[in-house]
Every structure is written in C-alpha cells, then in structure tokens.
Write a structure and sequence with these properties.
11 helices
Length: 270
C-alpha cells in the first residue's frame, strides 16, 4: 500500500519514528510529552544515525533517560509486572515460560530505548498476563499435583478456536489494506467534486438573496451534476425552479417524490 501511495518501501513509520528518535535524544520520558511529535523531514536513515551518535556522545545521560522510561513503564502496570515476574520465576524450569519471559523482556527493553506513546505497549500486556497465569498454574500444580497436567489436544482445540476469529479479522484487515488505494482515489474524486460544488452552492445562495431564482437554479443544476444524489442539492434545485416558476425536477425514488411533492400539480414528467 505504501509503495502504491508513496512510491517507496517503508519498513517503519515514515515520519513518526523520526520524531520519537528526536524526543529520546532530547530526554523526553513520558508518553504524554510525545503525543504531538511527528517527523522533521530528515528521513529514517539519517535520523537513526543521529540518534546513535547522540546516544554514544552522552551515554550516561541517555542511559538515565532509558531508566526513566523503564520506571514509567513499571509504574503504569505494577501489579501486572509483579505477577509476570513471579510467574517467570516459578515457571523457570519450563522452556515455554522462559521463552515467553524473554520475549516480554525484549519487547519492554526495546521500547525503553526511545520515547514512545502508550499505545506502543498494548502488545506487552497480554504477554505479562500469560506469564502471571503460568505462575498461578505452577502454584496450583505444587499444591495439587496433576491438577494442571499438560493436555495437548484440548489446549490445541482451544487455541484454534480463539485464533479463528482473530485470523478472520486479520484477513479482512488485509483486504481493506489492499483495497485502500482504490478507495482513497474514489474518496479523492468525491472531495474534488465537493470542492468544485461548494462555490456554486454559495453563489446560488447569494443569487437567491438578490431575487435571482433562475440564476440560482442554474448554479444548483451544475452542482447537482457534480454531486449526483445529494439530497440538499436536489431540494435546492427543486426550490429555486419553483421560485422561478419552472417545473421542479422529480426523481424516481419514493423519498425524492416526497421531497418534491409540488411536482405532481405541475404534471412533471417523472
């Protein structure tokens, strides 16, 4: 989609990431302070190079800002982090728990390196909750041996049942992404028609204020050609033609016939 819209490959956010790199260099810690940051126009590669040079030039200052962001992260969900840490420790003998803990540490650590917004951490919360659940299962297993014995077949069925709607939603989202350029082009044409019709409608109102119903009707007729099916334009056209003494344009739809009921006495050929 980015290639079709912008003519280039974008591995990361084109402008947003540059603003976040600049905010991290400046020592910004809290997400509320980066909500309005956007790209400055230097580009991704020069921005990454400048960020790396600034971090290397003042390593202790940069490390302090990373620690401050980690502290903010912990303060945001202290119970969830505590449950995840306890679960990782209790289930450290299991390879899957160790892998999940490593993934959570990696994700949290990467997002301590730059200034971020709160939305960036949303994928982290399910990982921490899963670690907390693993710890609870380990405690139950120690209290009641065999209570939480692995059951591959039911677990696989549950996972597939949960993944099915998620995969369907992902497929639908990808369909929307693929169709986006065409839909955007259609929306751009509609916006262009709106921009072209607006001066005509404004001029029609001024002409009506001066008593020139025929001139206003001509403007409404041109606007109706740009906005076919627009109810406000159709009603304005019917009204200006009624004011000018000409038959009002009727439509075949029931709603349009109700909106232009005055057509019937005039025997409008609809």
């Amino acid at each position: 989609m980015n290639w079709r819209l912008h003519g280039k490959f974008m591995p990361l956010e084109e402008g947003r990431i540059e603003g976040l790199l600049a905010a991290s260099i400046a020592g910004v810690e809290k997400p509320s302070h980066v909500s309005g940051f956007t790209g400055f126009g230097a580009g991704l590669v020069p921005g990454l190079a400048a960020w790396a040079r600034a971090a290397a030039a003042s390593p202790w200052t940069y490390a302090a800002s990373c620690a401050a962001r980690a502290r903010w992260m912990l303060e945001g969900q202290p119970l969830l982090f505590a449950a995840a840490a306890a679960g990782a420790w209790l289930g450290r003998a299991r390879a899957e728990v160790r892998g999940l803990a490593l993934l959570a540490v990696y994700y949290a650590g990467v997002h301590c390196l730059i200034a971020i917004s709160e939305a960036y951490l949303v994928p982290l919360w399910p990982l921490l909750a899963a670690l907390g659940g693993a710890g609870a299962a380990e405690l139950l297993r120690r209290v009641r041996p065999g209570a939480c014995a692995p059951r591959p077949e039911p677990a696989r069925a549950v996972v597939l049942a949960l993944l099915a709607p998620a995969l369907a939603a992902a497929a639908w989202s990808l369909t929307l992404v693929v169709r986006y350029p065409a839909r955007a082009a259609a929306a751009a044409e509609t916006d262009a028609a709106e921009e072209e019709a607006w001066p005509l409608l404004d001029e029609a109102r001024r002409l009506l204020a001066r008593g020139d119903a025929r001139g206003a009707g001509e403007r409404y007729r041109r606007a109706a050609a740009l906005r076919p099916g627009e109810r406000r334009v159709a009603v304005g056209l019917a009204w200006t033609q009624a004011l000018a003494g000409a038959p009002a344009p009727c439509s075949g739809s029931s709603r349009s016939r109700r909106a232009t009921a005055s057509c019937r006495p005039r025997r409008c050929p609809c």
